[in-house]
Design a protein that fits this description.
single chain, disordered C terminus, mainly alpha, 8 helices
């Protein structure tokens, strides 16, 4: 059987790519960054497999110490590109940053599903959707929002980018640690309890919905 990770990647990305010619520019960009997130997951999954073998398949150590670093670094690259090359306006950066995180989580969930197909349930799907999906989205929004601020303040750019990346890595590592511990229910609730205040904050600050008032 062919590598199911690549099968899932092709099946999902081809379907999304076929939508692009029918979309307006602002929505097309959103889907492109979602596809970028999916590709980032494919790249990181190969890297993480190599690191897992290097650390003698110690899944707990790798997922709480190594993968938060590799995943957040790779996810940050398209966000930096967007802010530096395209636009650093929050109404553009934040939705597209979230799309990167959602795309990453989408392929990650499909890969885990194919690896544990006999053990998954509807509850598993809900936990992965609200847990992993939100964690990756929250981390990329955190980085995107911060970059939209420090991009205009050159002297803070490098140290600020490092600080944002570090915050995303720490948040991600805490989530991975909690969901593999006796406090897994705290880990499941953590992304939801973070997501709600973020949405309220962004709405209060006037960051509009995707596709509205965007050039």
């Amino acid at each position: 059987m062919d590598n199911l990770t690549y099968v899932a990647f092709i099946a999902v990305t081809v379907s999304l790519a076929l939508m692009l010619p029918l979309m307006e520019k602002k929505l097309r960009r959103l889907v492109v960054f979602m596809i970028t997130g999916i590709f980032s997951c494919l790249f990181v999954s190969e890297l993480n497999n190599i690191l897992l073998e290097a650390f003698r398949n110690d899944m707990f150590f790798v997922t709480t110490t190594i993968t938060p670093v590799t995943e957040e670094i790779v996810k940050m690259i398209p966000i930096l590109f967007l802010a530096i090359v395209v636009s650093d306006e929050r109404r553009i950066v934040i939705p597209n940053a979230f799309a990167v995180g959602v795309g990453f989580a989408l392929l990650e969930n499909v890969v885990i599903l194919t690896q544990n197909v006999e053990n998954v349930t509807i509850l598993w799907a809900l936990v992965r959707g609200f847990g992993s999906g939100l964690v990756h989205g929250i981390c990329t929004v955190m980085v995107g929002w911060g970059i939209s601020y420090i991009k205009k303040r050159r002297k803070f750019f490098y140290c600020g980018t490092f600080a944002l990346l570090s915050a995303a890595i720490i948040y991600h590592a805490i989530y991975n640690l909690l969901v593999q511990s006796e406090y897994q229910y705290v880990g499941i609730v953590l992304p939801i309890m973070t997501y709600i205040p973020i949405i309220c904050f962004l709405r209060k600050k006037g960051v509009k919905a995707i596709g509205t008032s965007e050039s």
